[in-house]
Amino acid sequence: KQFHLGMFEIGRPLGKGKFGRVYLVRERSSGFVCALKVLHKNELKHGGAETQVRREIEIQSNLRHPNILRLFGHFHDSKRIFLILEFAGKGELYKHLRRESKFPEWKAAQYVAQMAAALKYCHKKHIIHRDIKPENILLGIHGEIKLSDFGWSVHAPSNRRETLCGTLDYLPPEMLKPGRDKNVYSNKVDLWSLGVLTYEFLVGEAPFEDTPVMTQRKISRGEMTVPGFVSPEAKDLIKRLLVLDPEKRISLDQVQEHPWIIKHCVKGERATMRESKSTSS
Ligand SMILES: COc1cccc(-c2nc(Nc3cc(C)[nH]n3)cc3ccccc23)c1
Description:
By secondary structure, this protein is α+β, with helices and mostly antiparallel strands. The protein has helices at about 40-45, 50-60, 95-100, 105-125, 175, 190-205, 210-220, 230-240, 250-255, 260-265, 270-280, and strands at about 10-15, 20-25, 35-40, 70-75, 80-85, 90, 125-130, 135-140, 145, 155. Ligand RO9 binds near residues 37, 69 and 92.
């Protein structure tokens, strides 16, 4: 389908990302509300981000999952590239995290379970996200997780080539190791990042947060401590994800079956029973 700017009624700007602005828009003929991400070609050129945008378009437009932000289409004019994206009504997860400072365990467990489902879907299509962090997660109108920003995702297996900018906090040890391109890494990098994300949801800061040099050292040694207020089950899951050897990290299936996730996420009468008890009490 061919898209062009005249098809959209431009609403309020939602905010500014790294390489462009995002607007709330309505497609005129259908009345469909979505988000329009406007990227300026010359800024992309300087930032060397063209490949990432091309990758984001190619990968995200082929993904269909309730916890992955849809890319409906794209178009460009002489100066700009436009991405037509699903609108997530509750905005950026990391703003909610900063506002609430940390999430209660039941909420963190629901988010982790939805992230595991989204990553399982990606990995089945041999796609590694590689940039899992709160800044790349949006929340839908019902508070559901919408994984976005596939600019850093690749088809597995992959060996590191691009230089990495931005926070080091989420990088797994195998992506920090110097060495020839032979150190091919696998989709297990997303499991490490899921462990960092789980920790940050529950504690309010990343496990290896420090100066860049110290962060790299702590990551490469897997040095971190989980505060006492974190439940033993949650601590167990974090410890099983933040494992230096990628092959020894638990799988996404095991994440979904982990006692901490089951305790907070299993649907069905027990969960509704609990709700009804709490409402009736
Ligand atoms: C930097 O702050 C930014 C940047 C870009 C978007 C938002 C934002 N986004 C969305 N939803 C979105 C965004 C996309 C690509 N799909 N759905 C909702 C919001 C609600 C309140 C405030 C802000 C919001 C913020």
